[in-house]
Amino acid sequence: WIVIETSGSSHPLPLVEYFKNSVQFALKDVITLVDATWLRDDFQQGATLIPKWQENVQRGIRGVENLLVEQIMFSNRVMLTKTDKVDDNTVRNIAQAIHPLNVYTEIIKTSWGNLDVRTLKGKQDYNFVLVEQLITELREAVNEPLNLSDKDEQSLVAKVLKDDRPFHPARLWNICQQYLTKGVFRSKGFFWFPTRDDVSLLWSQANGNVGLEITGFWRASVIEDESQNYTEEHRQILQDKIDSVESRFGDRRCRLTVIGQEDEVDAFIDALESCFLTDEELDQWQQGETFEDPWPKKIAKLNQKRTP
Fold it and tell me: Does 178 lie in the same domain as 101?
């Protein structure tokens, strides 16, 4: 079994068509993840999704509604995510609203990726017959840029923010309240805070929801920890790995990918860049000064062990 995870902004048609013409592989499932809070907040519990899509078709434009609708049409399983943030009645309303788009798909609710993997191991192969007409109709359209605004025709963009500096916790908190707009669809990556400079933090944002998780410890913090009884050989291995990273702070660094409407992505990235510590603040951090940190202290830890 091979699980292929594509970007949420990608269209399923090319992948489905590839497996349709392949004799080496058997496609079992096309699974679409749909944010239940997004449909609740932006599409009136899914009720306005189909009308908005139909309006786009009549106007000859392609918006994010087209992409989402077509992802559902190609899928044989739809997973409603973040269902822990919506009540059961809303989940039912959303499922009923999107079901007419694909009466053959199975709709599953989940939260925090809590899903029994055995449910994905279906015995039957993906039914290409159901999407043959869809492939024919959309083959050319999927290459057209999405119209993400009623005012401007803008393409969906993905931009990467790279820096070795940490974010100022309070500034980042405030920026997220002001600049995390509907046009910023998805952002993910890792970064660090001066207040928690031993751990690598995973940033995961979808629409208005932001999650922080600890992915592990920076090697620079591990090698500085005198309680770790590493041999000289082990320390040298750690140091070599640290030296291979372009950073002024060991292997500590920030890498975030932001996906969304171009002008809003640019504004969000500009705002994020203002959150990095200034040279003066970096000196303060290195001298042991503290910074205001409003982010939750109890966040998920994905890796309990300190490993090189």
Answer: no
Identify the CA nearest to 266 among candidates 187, 193, 200, 184.
184
What tokens were used for 98? 């999107």
CATH code of residue 208: 3.30.1220.10
Q: Which structural domain range is residue 247 located in?
A: 156-287
Q: How many domains does the chain contain in total?
A: 2
The answer to whether residues 174 and 95 belong to one domain is no
Tell me, yes or no, whether 104 and 195 share the same domain: no
Same domain? For 243 and 123 the reply is no
Output the CA torsion 167→169→174→177 (10° steps). Answer: 90
Q: pTM here? A: 0.64
Find out whether 81 and 34 touch, Cβ atoms under 8 Å. yes
Alpha helices in the chain (DSSP H): 13-20, 36-42, 49-59, 64-74, 88-98, 132-138, 169-179, 219-224, 232-243, 262-273, 279-286
The b/e string for 171-194 (b: 16+ C-beta within 10 A; e otherwise) is bbbebbeebbeebbbbbebbbbbb
- Beta bridge partners of residue 261, listed in sequence order: 156
For 169-216, write each residue's pLDDT tens digit. Answer: 999 999 988 888 778 888 999 999 999 999 999 998 876 678 888 889
